[in-house]
Amino acid sequence: MKSFWKAFYYDGRTAERHEVEISLSPEALCVKKDGKEALWRLDEVDQTQGFNKGEPVRLEKGGEALIINDAEFVVSLYSMAPAHAARFKRPDRMGRGVLLISLSAFLTIAIGLGVYFWAIPAMVRVATANIPPSVEDRLGRSYVSGLTGMVPQCTSPEIIDSTDRILKKLESAVPGHPYDFKLYVLKNETVNAFAAPGGHIVLLSGLIEATESPEELAGVMAHEMQHVLKKHSTQAIFKDLSTGVLFSFAFGDLQGLSGAVRTMEGLRYGRNLEEEADKKGMELLVRAGIDPEGMVGFFEYLWECECKKEKKDKKASVLEYLSTHPATENRVEYLKKNLGSVSPRNYEPLLPGVDWERVKNSCSGGPPGGKEKQDEEAQKTDEVDT
Q1: Do residues 311 and 380 lie in contact, with contact meaning Cβ atoms separated by under 8 Å?
Q2: CB distance 3 to 23 below 8 Å
Q3: Pairing between β-strand 36-41 and β-strand 28-33 as defined by DSSP bridges
Q4: What digits encode the pLDDT tens for the residues 94-105?
Q5: Which of 131, 151, 246, 258 has the most Cβ atoms closer than 10 angstroms to its Cβ?
Q6: What is the pTM of this model?
Q7: DSSP letter string over 41-87?
């Protein structure tokens, strides 16, 4: 059994990678770089990649990451640190997962609805955890192609440049991930955004116009990126698919799965997944050097709109975002609590010198408005009603 492994280390603050040497003990990893050593306690380490044969192993601790190209590393970890083995998955055992999925599907058909309600959720969890990024990319492209075929894309160079700059800034804080993020800005007044599997993120122009700063848009984008990185989007698709399509996937029929994805109206997440995307999204903003106050401010604005939805019908477009990203009062408080745990610091402007009011409205060609304009329109509606 090997004693040392070559690996690449990312500090979580820059995209630069460092070649290091790691060794194992029953309770920790020893990371050696330039004659210095750092211990990673195994109970603080998460495995986020390396579940499939031939895939590099990725370990994370806080914002830091290690990439080990030798899949035998996890096998050695099982032998050296059996007390922590349950936290890690061996790629040489992943083939069993596909067999279990197929067997579960067959048994579900055979024994009826009673087992159906147990087998399908279990199959979704296993399938989502083991689906390769390349398959997720196919699902995402299939889903987004249906939208871009119906809704025109924004061609404003100002919006395209600004959103790309924000995306690159965020991506620099998560180096080594297996996805190729792609951004789509569609011309639609609805306030909405969502992430499809494989790194495909869609922003509607109505949402961009509702933001007051690039930092607010970055908060939404960081949230959606976490839905991709944590495989929430893939899980949401699998949960909504019909039983027949799930069985098709279990037996390798990806064509049927892609066709079903095109017909989906939207991706919805449970409260736990939304809170995880909020928390990890805020951590991503901080690592990227972007003020997380923008994220809190935008979701707080959505909550205010939700509170007034019975009186102000003109905010219906904002409520479209709330249908897929519920902004309950508890959620806003959760965001504020996470913000309070972030160490205070001075943040540089995200897009210095950019006239955000002009940029955000360049897609529709309309005058600056955003939140203030919507509030004025809602106030006029109230005056007419009274």
Answers
A1: no
A2: yes
A3: antiparallel
A4: 555 555 555 665
A5: 246
A6: 0.62
A7: EGGG-EEEE--STTPPEEEEETTEEEEE--THHHHHHHHH-GGGGGG
- Tell me which residue has tokens 């055979």: 110
Integer Cα distance of 29 and 45 in angstroms: 9
Furthest CA-CA distance within the chain: 80
Report residue 72 as tokens: 């035998």
Residue ranges and CATH numbers for the domains of the chain are 4-93 (2.30.29.30), 95-130 (no CATH), 133-385 (no CATH)
DSSP H helices, 213-270, are 214-229, 232-240, 243-250, 254-262
Q: Please name the amino acid found at residue 109.
A: I
Contacting residues for 208 by C-beta, under 8 A, at least 6 apart: 159, 163, 185, 217, 360, 363
CA neighbours within 13 Å on the CB side: how many for 225? 29
Q: What is the DSSP string of 301-324?
A: HHHHHHHTTTT-GGGHHHHHHHHH
Nearest CA among 259, 22, 237, 33 for reference residue 145: 259
* Measured distance CA(234)–CA(226) in Å, rounded: 12
